[in-house]
Amino acid sequence: MTATPPDVIRCAYAELVVTDLEASRTFYVDILGLVVTYEDDEAIYLRAFEEYLHHSLILRKGDTAALAVLAYRVRTPADLDLAVAYYTGLGVRVERRPAGATRGIGEAVRIEDPLGFPVEFFHDAEHVERFTQRYDQHGAGALSRLDHFNVVTPDVPAARSYYEGLGFRVSEDIQDDEGTVYAAWMFRKPTVHDVALTGGDGPRLHHIAFASQERHQILHVCDHLGALRKSDMIERGPGRHGVSNAFYLYVRDPDGHRIELYTHDYYTGDPDNPVITWDVHDNQRRDWWGNPVVPSWYSDASPVLDLDGKAQPLIERSDAREADVTIGADGFSYTSKQEGFKLGEQV
Ligand SMILES: O=C1C=CC(S(=O)(=O)O)=CC1(O)O
Ligand SMILES: [Ca+2]
Ligand SMILES: [Fe+2]
Fold this sequence. Notes:
Radius of gyration: 19 Å
Cofactor: Fe(2+)
Number of helices: 6
Structural class: alpha+beta
Strand content: 25-35%
CATH topology: 2,3-Dihydroxybiphenyl 1,2-Dioxygenase, domain 1
Bound molecules: 3,3-dihydroxy-4-oxocyclohexa-1,5-diene-1-sulfonic acid, calcium ion, fe (ii) ion
Pfam families: Glyoxalase
Protein name: 3,4-dihydroxyphenylacetate 2,3-dioxygenase
Domain VOC: 10-124, 145-264
Oligomer: single chain
Mean pLDDT: 94
CATH superfamily: 2,3-Dihydroxybiphenyl 1,2-Dioxygenase, domain 1
CATH class: Alpha Beta
Keywords: Aromatic hydrocarbons catabolism, Dioxygenase, Iron, Metal-binding, Oxidoreductase
CATH architecture: Roll
Number of strands: 18
Shape: globular
Largest sheet: 10 strands, mixed
Distance between the termini: 53 Å
């Protein structure tokens, strides 16, 4: 009999190892506008304006940029015991952590999940001031909350089954007519996703996304980076996603960690929420306006650490790779047959 999984509410925080804490602080606080809950010489604890738990992002100084943990909040403290039993049953490494092992977080359970990611489950956390209406503090690029994790994993169907075992449901995916699955979006909170599974060599972190209330806040970050002559930190977008329908921007932090700014996806909370499956050759799947997906968006991702802080070895993806099955710079798969002005014709 399979053990009962912990009741996951949502994605809740991530810890990134960064090599220059000061440069990272400038990026995440001065440019992205995240609120500092606590900081010292070793780490900075950040939250977005609607968040009242201690943090949704930890930046920890270290020698090599990497993901240290992805954390999900569970509904009750009792879910931690369920997590221990469930993951012990899966035969993966499981560690209990006392309250305070992570500043601001109560008792927790940390695992190396079946996909190789360092994952934490917690319920109790310190409450801090919620800045929802502290408009005196919001900048023009105000971010509201952590929205999702995007992880790179070689076998998307296997990863989907693992997350379905945790009670996540698929909202959208990308397939081809042979049934190869290139990516899937899965949720516990009633939005498009808490975690996206991107097919590729993994385990690696593709990105962490914060939601804003408005598109103009994302556009302000673009203008702000331009004013600082840091436009090279803009990797992809701004644009409108096909999958999720969200307005988006991808930026790269000083270590190359990818952060997405994201707004206006849609509600998925009813039990019969329809799954949307996109064809990998649909050039509006990743950008609704058909703009190209820059090659680095497919190739680059952050290494992840095991529970001892060592980099996890990568497993190569054996299925077809999305960047290979679309023509040239992505986004022109079905327009590539016509004479076109789009970049894809020239690469
Ligand atoms: O959050 C996301 C929603 C949609 C997309 S996609 O590029 O439209 O597939 C990418 C993404 O996973 O970052
Ligand atoms: Ca708007
Ligand atoms: Fe995303």
